[in-house]
Amino acid sequence: xxxxxxxxxxxxxxxxxxxxxxxxxxxxxxxxxxxxxxxxxxxxxxxxxxxxxxxxxxxxxxxxxxxxxxxxxxxxxxxxxxxxxxxxxxxxxxxxxxxxxxxxxxxxxxxxxxxxxxxxxxxxxxxxxxxxxxxxxxxxxxxxxxxxxxxxxxxxxxxxxxxxxxxxxxxxxxxxxxxxxxxxxxxxxxxxxxxxxxxxxxxxxxxxxxxxxxxxxxxxxxxxxxxxxxxxxxxxxxxxxxxxxxxxxxxxxxxxxxxxxxxxxxxxxxxxxxxxxxxxxxxxxxxxxxxxxxxxxxxxxxxxxxxxxxxxxxxxxxxxxxxxxxxxxxxxxxxxxxxxxxxxxxxxxxxxxxxxxxxxxxxxxxxxxxxxxxxxxxxxxxxxxxxxxxxxxxxxxxxxxxxxxxxxxxxxxxxxxxxxxxxxxxxxxxxxxxxxxxxxxxxxxxxxxxxxxxxxxxxxxxxxxxxxxxxxxxxxxxxxxxxxxxxxxxxxxxxxxxxxxxxxxxxxxxxxxxxxxxxxxxxxxxxxxxxxx
Amino acid sequence: xxxxxxxxxxxxxxxxxxxxxxxxxxxxxxxxxxxxxxxxxxxxxxxxxxxxxxxxxxxxxxxxxxxxxxxxxxxxxxxxxxxxxxxxxxxxxxxxxxxxxxxxxxxxxxxxxxxxxxxxxxxxxxxxxxxxxxxxxxxxxxxxxxxxxxxxxxxxxxxxxxxxxxxxxxxxxxxxxxxxxxxxxxxxxxxxxxxxxxxxxxxxxxxxxxxxxxxxxxxxxxxxxxxxxxxxxxxxxxxxxxxxxxxxxxxxxxxxxx
Lengths: 533, 258
Fold this sequence. Notes:
The complex is a heterodimer of chains A (533) and B (258). Chain A is an alpha+beta fold and 533 residues long.
């Protein structure tokens, strides 16, 4: 105590004033925390467990370069899009250079597809043997303006899709819905894409005279001459099955989309004068040799497979930044034990009576405890998660894994979010500890409400629907802050909790835990005021 | 030894929390099992689910109450200083621990039996309504069925072994809160970490090693070949964990001041 000691009775000087100075309460609680060796050791253990388990998991992971069939590993680094995310950029491109401003207008009269229901085409037969007809939900064909033919370069496109109507998409992650419904000769779709500087404007029409705007895309730094034209793409057919033990696996095979275009009209300067067919990066995506285009009588037929979309982490030598945070669960348990004991130890030793005599405003005592334990847990978590994520990535890269790229903002959110998760869990443990006044019971309750829903959601017999509800309602929802790769509506994927996809947005999931912590703390304040200590 | 057993039984019986915890273990186990059974529907095409395993999901929650009871039987004595009296009255320390283990196993087996029977009853009533019908290849759960009996009896044994593991851990660390953190950490961390590590071999090894992941293999009644570890071998892994914890606890109890 250095300032303002005038109003404090001498016998209370060690614990701080109750009436004035929340800062003193904080200081008193901080002193309690740092002078109990077990609690400090507990927090250090939390940090160590987080880092060591993460590093062990990263160091223990390996992949063998010969699969079951003895085939060599494919280089599996996908191209990186303008936003820094991993993308798939494989499609059939019928293109011409477009110099300066200009545009392209087409009519689409059909979109058909082929897919293989049993994975890849049977060996030794024609590439289309055993394929059935039918489009994929996100088979797409239309017009595109692209920065260059480099994979991952910026683009904007207007397209018809298998079952999601007309869309305008740009730079892989952006997707805007247009007129719904399937395209056919009786119900064609007119599409238009216009470039003006860095701005691309998409429009659609049912009859070629009444146009509806789909939206605009801003592609910063678009060069003067871009590649523009027609395209067709069709993502792999996927089947997702839930198997024993809650895991789920996907399997699929290549597909092909074929679209018919006519009434192709070009605006602006097109110096090339002729169309070039270009199968862009399709082979890596299991493209089919029958991709190509035919031009006859002003009409075009374009067939292609692949996708122009964000890439999802899949099987194989790939790793995500949150893989380094495996140990955060162990750290979390240590933090919960310390958080609960931070209050229950006072009950056991009778110190609570001294504490409450020194500062009779009981709610503030609990608030001060929450701030201290929350801050300590946050700082511990920040250091541990920062080290674990950074070193985990380095180890994974060193072993030849492809670490899915994320923006530094996302990486910061994963690290700070993990720290905040530990802080909120510590406050929840403090609240439950104050309610139950028994360390072991409080620790059990908090571990069960955080860890068990997660275990049930990712590794049990529960179906994905029930698992997602568990991760919406229980404190385990907070693990959503660790999800680094988002779920994209325009890409079909195995978006289950077991694969690291949470039903809530990162901070929304964290807010659920905060809500529970606030509830526990509120209940604790009410009970602390009402009950004898 | 009879006196030790009698003393431990009196302590457990007269502690206000014991009865509630056993009741909680039973209720939570049956409630979660019923909820899991209600959440799972089996379409006519088949769902690859194991009805016995679904019906016994609640063990994953009930084990926490059992572990808490076990941890408190010795941790409570350390927090109140009662352990000094206990050891003064019965200087043969391993005998004290053995008596505690015996009494704890007894009550856990009794409560576990009630809980497991409740789970199976709930499963029998709920699952057929969700598509687990003979037409889809699922007979109603019955203890007359060998694998179902194994799953049911094994789940009761699982709870008793978790109690012994917890008792050993609590004796070793002498603090109920830390001990329950360690025990629940051991139980719940293995399935979580096994899910998160990318390497398939490690996943398999972790599931074979973890006391919960291995021990709960006893609940499987079909597709045994697909399991990382067989039912009885899995329960054996949990028994090894429990034995190791109890031995460590007994050794430390003997060597240390109380």
